[in-house]
Amino acid sequence: MTVVQAMLTGMELHHPETSEIELPAVLHALSDPHRLEIVRRLAEDSEPRACGSLDFGVTKSTMTHHYRTLRETGVIRQERRGTTKLTWLRRDDLDARFPGLLEAVLASKPVPA
Amino acid sequence: MTVVQAMLTGMELHHPETSEIELPAVLHALSDPHRLEIVRRLAEDSEPRACGSLDFGVTKSTMTHHYRTLRETGVIRQERRGTTKLTWLRRDDLDARFPGLLEAVLASKPVPA
Lengths: 113, 113
Known about the structure:
By secondary structure, the first copy, chain A, is an alpha+beta fold. The first copy, chain A, contains six helices and three strands.
């Protein structure tokens, strides 16, 4: 591990507490077709997913922006592992805060991003 | 009724068909605290509400923008009556397109706008 990697590993990624997750912010995070698709894919996974394993034909920086938006609004959790990040959907936290919301969103038919 | 009023009455307000209502657009429309509060208030009403009957301490043009966003994404229906507009929540249409979504959104605790 390089010094930079070690520093990155040590940097803590911001996640709101469950009680801090707010509805307007979550709705905004989910209002982008690409972010909605990320959430759909994560919802299908039983294991955390490595960042970069989803490809929507957009730039890496755009994907990073989408992941950050989802993380900072409390929709996903990310953890650094060496040079990659592992990503989970915060399904239990979202269900606790907004019962039925995620289920309704996931049940709706996807539209082309 | 003046000529201008008559013209305004004749102008048709755009509403998407039920099948054209898209999830990302609806989530975006609901992601603003003021728009979310408009939807909450409309959900409480059994009768259509006149525009201008809600006051959140924002400018009239901001409120007009919020109503237009809600209307053009299919969340509300508006109809001109003389110099005012009557507004309804498109609850049945939203329930048909995204079962459970509106219910989950309305069930969540409001946050200060």
